[in-house]
Structure formats: C-alpha cells, structure tokens
Amino acid sequence: MNKLTYNHLDIDIYSEKLDNGLEIYVIPKDSVNNIYATFSTKFGAVNNEFTPIGEDEMIRVPDGVAHFLEHQVFNQKDGRDPLNFFTSNGASGNANTSYYKTTYLFTGTDKFEENLEYLLDFVQEPYFTDQSVNKEKGIIEQEINMYLDNPYNQSYELLNSNVFHNHPIKNNVIGSVKSIKSITKEDLYNCYNTFYHPSNMFVVVTGNVDPEATIKLIKDNQSKKTFAEPTEIELKKYDEPDEVKKEFETLEMNISLPKVLMGFKFNMHDFNLEEQVLRWYLSLLANIKFSTTSLFFENLKKDNITTEEIGYTLLCTDDHALFILDNETNYPDDFIDRVKDEIKKIDIDEQEFNRKKKSFLSSIIYMTDDIYSLNQNVMSNIVNDGFVRTDIYDEILKLNFKEFNDFISKLDFDNLATVVVKPKETSD
Amino acid sequence: MNYKKYDLESSNLHVIKTDKFKTVAVRIYFKRKLKKDEINYRNMLSDILLESNSQYKTRRQLQIQKEELYNISLSGSSYKSGEYTFITYSMSFLNEKYTEPNMNEKSIELLLDLIQKPYIDDNKFDLETFNYTKDGLKNFLVSIDENPDRLAAIRLEEEMGENTPLAYRASGYLDTLDEVTSEKLYEYYKSMIENDIIDIFVIGDIDEEKIKQIFEKRKFRDKKNPKTESHFVKLEDTRKEKEIIENKGFVQSKLKMGFKMSELDDFERKYVMIAYNFILGGGNDSKLFREVREKNSLCYYISSSYSNLYQMLTVSAGIANDSYEKTVSLVKKAIQEMKDGDFDDDDLEEVKSIYKNTCLSFYDNPFDIINSYLVHEYLDYDLIEDKIKNIQKVTKEDIIKVASKIKLDTVYFLEGGSDE
Q1: How far is residue A318's CA from residue B147's CA, in Å, rounded to a whole number?
Q2: Which superfamily is assigned to B2-217 in CATH?
Q3: Residues 6 or more apart from A392 whose CB is under 8 A from it?
Q4: B419 pLDDT exceeds 60?
Q5: For A227-278, how does the pLDDT look when each residue is reduced to its tens digit (9 = 90+)?
Q6: Mean pLDDT, chain A, as a whole number?
Q7: How far apart are CA A19 and CA A5, in angstroms?
Q8: What SS3 class is residue A205?
Q9: Does B140 contact A at CB distance below 8 Å?
Q10: Are residues A125 and A255 in the same domain?
Q11: Domain region containing A366
Q12: Residue A237 domain-assigned?
C-alpha cells in the first residue's frame, strides 16, 4: 500500500495495484458521514473498434455499445437487481458512461463493506441473454428520445460530428435508435471480456473509511476470482486531420432562444507542453477573455447582444483539443463576429492572470471539502494521465505568465466549427 | 456541532459552529405571504442585488472582488413555500484559517453591502443593471417552454391548485414582466427590507460572538421581525378526475398524474407519506420503476414525488405517445396495490435505512444543515436526529391506512411524437 499526501491540502491518498492489474485509490475523510465508491473501466463510447481479447482481427461494434453494456451489466444470473441490493442496504447505486470510461458507483453510510464487495461482484459477474438485451432496447429508445428534446445535448453532438472527420468522438455516447437496435448479446460479451478485465479497471473510494481495511477487502475479494492474464488491448488508431470537417451548420429545434456553439480545434502536439498544463492554460484563457470578469462580456451586455454568461468546455482526444464556447442569444451572428474578433487579441494583463490563478487555487481547496468532487478528480486523473496529481496545488502555483502568453500566441483560432440552434419555423 | 439562535429584534440570527468544513456558509432569508402579482418582483430582486451595488457598479467589478476574496461563491433564489415565499441570498467562502486574517468578516460584509447598498440612481435601480436583469429573467421564462418536463409539472400544478398558491408559477409570468419598472422595483425592495421576516444563518468553524457583532453592527432596519403563520396550503377537495392532453411539438411524451390526500395527521404527513412515496416511486427500485420500466420497457424514467406543503403526490414519466393508456393503467394498478398492502416488509425496511442515510448525508453539506434548521423553525419539521428516530416507527398498517386516503385528481399528458 502506498500513501501520498496532496501538498497544501491536508488530504492523503492510499493506493495499491493488485496482481490482476486492478488499481485501488482511497481518500479517507473522517469529517463527513458519507462514503462514495466508484468502480470504473477505461471503456467508453469512443472505443468501438478494437481486437477482442484472444482474437486476431479488429471488429467494429455498433455506436452506443458502451452505454448499452452499462445498462446490461445490471442484469444478474440470480435475477437480483443490483440497485435493489444497494437500496436495501440504505445506500444508493448508479452508473454512467462517457466517451472514455464507464463507472459503477454507490454512496451510503451503512454496511459499507458489504456494499463495496457487492459492487465488485455484480460488475464482475454479469449475465446477458437475448431476452435481457431486447428488453433494454425499449428503455434506451426512450432515453434517446428524452435527449432529442434537449437543445444543449443536440447542439453539442452536432458540433462534435462537424469538428471530427474520423475519430469516434464524433458519435454521441448513447448511439441512435437504429444502432442500438442492432446490438446483440455477442457484441456485449466481446466488449465486456476485452475491457472489463481488472487490468483495465480501477476503484476509487472517498469519505469516511479506513483505507487499510478497504484495500484489504478488495484484495481478498479479487483473490477469490480468476481472470485471464492481463494483455494489452489493441485499439484502432485514427488518422484525424487537423482541420474541422464542416465550418458552419444551423439546426432547427422546438426552442425560442437561439443557441450558439463555437468549437476551436487545436493539435496538441504543436506545443511543447504537458497535456494537463495545456488544459489549465486553455481554461485560464477562456476565463480571462470570456467570463464575467472580462471587458468583452461586459461590452456584449452593454450592447444588448446577450444576457447569458458564456459557457466553456474542453474536449480532448489523444491528438486534438476542442475548445468550446457556448451562449444563448437572440443575435447569434453578432456574437460569433465579436468572439472571432476578440480571440485574436493577446492583451492579457499579468495581474489578472495572477488573480485567476489564486481563484483556481481556492477552488482546489473547495474541492477537498466534497467527497464527490475528490473522487471525480481522481477518476479524471487516472483516465487522462494514468496517475493521481497530488501536486496539483504546486503545479497550478507554477503556471507561468510568459509561458501562457507564448502558448496563446501559437494558437490558430481560424480552425473553427460553429453550430447555431434556431427556433423551428412554424408553418401555420 | 453547536447551534445557537439570537434574537436581533429586526431579524433572527442562527449560528451553527462546526469544524467539519473548510468553508463558511451564510444564507439570508426574506419571507412573506405569497401574492401572485409580487412573484415577478421577487424573482427580479433575487437576481438584481447580486448583480452590482453602490460600490461595485457592474457584474464585472463585483466578480473581480469575489475573486480577490479567494473566489467567493454567491447565489440568489426565490421560491414558493406553500402560503409563503422566500428570497434567499447565499454565500460560501474559504474559512480565514485557510486564507488570511479578517477574511471572514470582510466576506460577510460584502454580502451585506450587496443587500443593503444596492446601486440606486435617482430613486430607482440603475437602469443598465435593471434592464440586463430583466432580459435575463425573460430568457429564463422563455426557456421553461423548451423543457417539456418542467412545462408539464407547471401545467399540472395549475390544473390541480385552482384558487390556491399551488397554481402560481414560482418562475414568474412573462406577460406581466414589463409592468415591473425600475422605480417600482426599488419601492418593492424597500418594502422587502422593511416588512419581510428575516432569518440569517451562518455555519462553519467560527466565533459565534464575533458573528453576532457583525450582524448587530449592520442591522437591516429598526422594525421588529414580524410573526409567522402556517405555510400549509389546503387544496380544494378532489373533484371528478380531470384528464388534460396538450401538444407542444416535442419528441417524447410526458405523463404527470396528480393525487390529492385528505385528513392526514402530523405523523402521516411527515413520515408515513415519505415511506409510501418511496415504495411507490421514490427510487430506481420502486414499484413503478419495476413495473413500468423493467417489466414493460415503457420508459427510461418514472418516479413519484410527495409534497407535504400541498398534500399532493405526483407521478412523472417520459414515454412514447402510444404507451399513454397502458402506462396510466399500470400506475393505477400500482396505486391499488399500495391500498391492498401488496408490498414487502423489506420495502419498508429499505425506506428506513435509505431515509436514515439521506438524513446523515445532510450533515456533510453546510446548506443542507441550514435548511434543516429553517424548516424546523417554519414548517415544524423535526431535526435530523429526530427524523432518523421517527421514521423507524412507521408500520405497514400505517402505509395501508394513508393509501386509502389518496385519490387521483388530474392526469396531464404532454403529447409528443413530432418526429415520428
């Protein structure tokens, strides 16, 4: 068992990698009552072309398989519903799927040992049948329909598909009604056997727990099970051009206030910076240039172009970063022109840069008060970097104004895809 | 954790001392009887006071100051609570132990400055701030119509709550928003400061006396805090069942079924109904979830919720258009099964342990702790420890008894299917 301390933050993290490859991370916090446990596989919506374990040829599975599999992992041979198990122990279970991982989780104060053991067991002993797969299709179809009414969701999906040519991040996580209807039991087993091997998975526990006992429990549980030897998973590599695929598209929906998304695509290898540092600099850029502390936003307000704050999202693949700004406005064209104009001006004040850094550092301290944010942070670290950033405080402290300016000056803001969602024209 | 209440005459100050958090949280409540034509004013006030003030005249200047104070977070809200309505201003900041001396007082003073020293020009709110806030609220009201689930919930309340505050839209009214002028809003602001019931909560690792001194120095008014009355709303008795079907062009259909209940006693309202609701449709292991989603694959989500203030139970689901009748009949069947006592003792044990867990997690969030004291004060809810004890007393017979008092009132169906 290893113990590391987050510097400046009074937080310890205990970790261990088991013989079967499973990684465990525990952050004890005795000032809270609750416990949050997550069990994740590095398998998400982007992993739909790979060589199944023990085979030689690469296959392609239908879009939406990772999410479909997440639903079906809850199907158990003994007919018991895992959510029911957690509920009957006073806890609450759930799961979610993103582009890069799938997570099973529970939160609860009571019967922690029993719950944790069950979390491992139900995920590691799934049971798919033709009948269970068919039943799931009706449920997921309704989930897809729910998202079709959500303009935020629809616009992000359209943007990704207009930015990326080949990388599967261009597809949405949930799939389409057509793709999910084609999913078979065999697809699920192919994905499960390949990606749910312990060497591709990790457990993160945050909250009121004893780290040693927690790690021992997981170790004992895993030693009772047998798994194939860990092997390297072969994933399809994508040759993704740097240019966006389509520069502009309008989408009509049942809404009243238009929405705009602007996605700037950068090749991350163009800069001599670590990915996380690049993420922080881009976030600082968005914050300084477009947040409510910016003159830019104040002027947009003054000129009545918008009343809504500008949203910022960053999406990364191995090669590219997509820097997204979003807004709701009655004047999408003006908004787009103003942003294009503004983003090319590099006139950032050092004092402002330092204030934002201080504010970043404060938010890191806020994060350590919350077991969900702490857990989430460890999970992102594992997926993005493969290790836990216990030096995060010092790393942010070290962000450097000159390096930041050099980086910004190299960004090409002409490589941009824009999506506008407009109210549907009614025929009557 | 140590709770103290001080009567500052013009307001109540509640201070909760605990070393559980690295942050200090402050929330100030203004409340009065709910009137329909005041809702837009109150919604405007919950936004505008956190937008600027006499010292920080734009949101930008204010935001810069918040960052200087170690990234303070600020939020305002306005909501209805039965016969009453609340405006809250909340702040959360890093305890000065993690930043620098005197930051606790400096931070709290910023919140007081925002509420007590708004940006007023010539007896009205600064017009730029005012117009901007109003446009924001307009967009918010427009966006409600883009969210089918929220829209369906509002429509159900309007249909069920005739002649009571349940029918009022807490989000406000677009058609009368332009009647709110900057002058009138300032008049209303003065009336809020002068006449509302004011409660101040502070929680964190703080010195209670020091906190008291800060608020004594910065009184809101000379006038005493008014007395409160009951928040509870009495809905009209169940009429003949109503069925309403509307279409606003969405893809998915939304079903809302509203039930009323009568003559519940205190224990039934506070505890038995919680157990009833949980077993029927409270979680992803409920009767409705199992029947409608798992057995019949009719939906992705279905749930029920219970409101003690209005004695009302709502079932919500997102379904396909052609599943309407089948879903309604499955819900009715589940309601009947509750009356027949067709649920396991295990289900009841689950409720008790889930409820206990939920209550215990309230202790992990400063604003949940504040809220539990507020509803103890005004809605006569029990404190967390007592809640955990009392839920244990609920029996299966209690649940069957309340089940017989629950009657379907309105079925609201927001028909979808526009893309099919």
Answers
A1: 35
A2: Metalloenzyme, LuxS/M16 peptidase-like (3.30.830.10)
A3: A6, A364
A4: no
A5: 988 889 999 999 999 999 999 999 999 888 899 999 999 999 999 999 999 9
A6: 94
A7: 24
A8: strand
A9: no
A10: no
A11: 248-423
A12: no
**Pairwise CB contact (< 8 Å): A366 & B354:** no
Is the residue at A54 inside a domain?
yes
A182 in the same domain as A283: no
CATH of the domain at A308: 3.30.830.10
Mapping DSSP to helix (H, G, I), strand (E, B) and coil, where does residue B409 land?
A: strand
pLDDT of residue A293: 92
Distance from CA of B54 to the nearest CA of A (A): 17
- Give tens-digit pLDDT for B132-147: 999 999 999 988 888 8
A107 to A125, A203, A387, B62, B202: CA distances (angstroms) = 21, 14, 24, 37, 28
Buried b (16+ CB within 10 A) or exposed e, B144-180: bbbbbbebbbbbbbbbbbeebbbebbbbbebeebeeb
Per CATH, B2-217 and B242-415 having the same topology is answered yes
What's the rounded Cα separation, in Å, for the pair A285 and A300?
A: 18
Cβ–Cβ under 8 Å, residues A383 and A211:
no
pLDDT recorded at residue A426: 63
The answer to whether residue A32 scores a pLDDT higher than 50 is yes
- For the residues B274-289, what does the mean pLDDT come to? 92
Q: At what angle do helices B182-195 and B127-144 cross, to 10 degrees?
A: 90
Contact between B64 and A359 using a beta-carbon 8 Å cutoff: no
pLDDT (mean) for B144-170: 93
CATH superfamily, domain at B242-415? Metalloenzyme, LuxS/M16 peptidase-like (3.30.830.10)
A70 is catalytic: yes
* Beta-carbon separation of A365 and B143 below 8 A: no
pLDDT at B13 over 60: yes
A144, A292 contact by CB (below 8 A): no
Task: Identify the residue whose tokens are 């409820």.
Answer: B355
Rounded distance between C-alpha atoms, residue B113 and residue B127, angstroms: 19
What stretch of H or E contains A49? strand A49-50
**Do A188 and A52 belong together in one domain?**
yes
Minimum CA–CA partner of B21 in chain A: A369
Q: For residue B346, list chain A residues with Cβ-Cβ distance below 8 A.
A: 88
Q: Work out the pLDDT band at A428, boundaries 50, 70, 90.
A: very low
The model's pLDDT over B258-277, given as tens digits with 9 standing for 90+, comes to: 999 988 999 999 999 999 99
